[in-house]
Specification:
Number of domains: 1
CATH class: Mainly Beta
Largest sheet: 7 strands, antiparallel
Strand order of the largest sheet: 4-3-6-5-10-9-11
Structural class: alpha+beta
Helix content: 10-25%
Oligomer: single chain
Distance between the termini: 52 Å
Shape: elongated
Number of helices: 3
CATH superfamily: CD59
Radius of gyration: 20 Å
Order of helices and strands: HEEEEEEEEEEHEH
């Protein structure tokens, strides 16, 4: 019995000794943190400062946690950005892979300017997705999503950075929990074209949606 207990103890120590430990926020304001042992699927730590804007009102949020390789593919700084028209978020993030390496709080991300890209966005009150949105800074993708608010769901179109697209696609949810995303995908690169030709973008989104549904049906069958 003592031998079995000793073997179990050695196994437990060996499986946790090499596990990464990261700071994680213990409240919504991240005014206090705790050291958390990460799972094997989270080989990185991340610290991020997020400027989230809803109905024109900006709020700064701090995010510290263990991170998957889809959110943090390498030890590097990253910028994440997404804009739904009525709600947007911009984040500066630092990924690292040593114990307690995400203790620092980053400054607010620098503001972005129009990059010439255009995507469709939806009016949440009507569900209509016919208006166009000027993309900002690193937002080089158009996307479609289903947003959940309470018990209601509504479509969300907008502009997003490639970093946000990759992470959201892999995680199956919004990257930093800015809002509840039931499903999302980045469909095409942002549309650069002649004003008045925005329907070309709508056609591109519609065709991509049909392709996604067809692919899903084929996989199911």
């Amino acid at each position: 019995m003592k031998l079995l207990f000793s073997l179990f103890l050695l196994w437990a120590l060996s499986t946790t000794a090499g596990a990464l430990q990261c700071q994680t926020c213990t409240n919504s304001a991240c005014s206090s943190t705790a050291l958390l042992t990460c799972s094997s699927s989270e080989p990185m730590c991340v610290t991020a400062t997020i400027l989230a804007t809803s109905s024109g009102t900006p709020v700064t949020q701090i995010y510290k946690a263990c991170a998957s390789s889809s959110l943090c593919p390498a030890v590097t700084s990253q910028t994440f950005s997404v804009d739904l028209g009525f709600q947007s978020a911009l984040a500066s993030a630092q990924c690292c892979n040593t114990d307690n390496c995400n203790s620092a709080t980053l400054p607010n991300p620098a503001s972005q300017s129009n990059n010439g890209g255009v995507c469709k966005f939806c009016d949440p009150s009507t569900g209509q997705c016919s208006s166009t949105l000027q993309c900002q800074g690193v937002e080089n993708q158009c996307f479609q999503s289903t947003i959940k608010s309470g018990t209601s769901t509504f479509p969300g179109y907008g502009c997003a950075s490639a970093t946000w697209c990759v992470a959201a696609s892999s995680l199956g949810s919004d990257t930093f929990h800015w809002f509840r995303v039931e499903s999302s995908w980045c469909c095409i690169t942002v549309w650069h074209g002649t004003p008045g030709k925005e329907d070309d973008l709508a056609s591109g989104v519609e065709n991509y949606t049909k392709e996604r549904k067809a692919a899903a049906s084929t996989t199911t069958n």
